[in-house]
Amino acid sequence: xxxxxxxxxxxxxxxxxxxxxxxxIGVTAKTVSNWERGTNLxxxxxxxxxxxxxxxxxxxxxxxxxxxxxx
Length: 71
Hints:
Elements: H1 6-13, H2 18-25, H3 29-37, H4 46-56
Helix pairs in contact: 2-3
């Protein structure tokens, strides 16, 4: 049983589509989708991480270590 992506939960809580979140941090919607499905690991710059925290309304420490589904 796979637990839902923590990133997806935070994104939906913030009321953002994959496309909207992607635009806010300068990646493609496909990239966000891949993170949430666990296909790709996130590789973000510090400025992008700051934007991600702002977009999701979380602190750095509240960001999940893994963006994909948890087994």
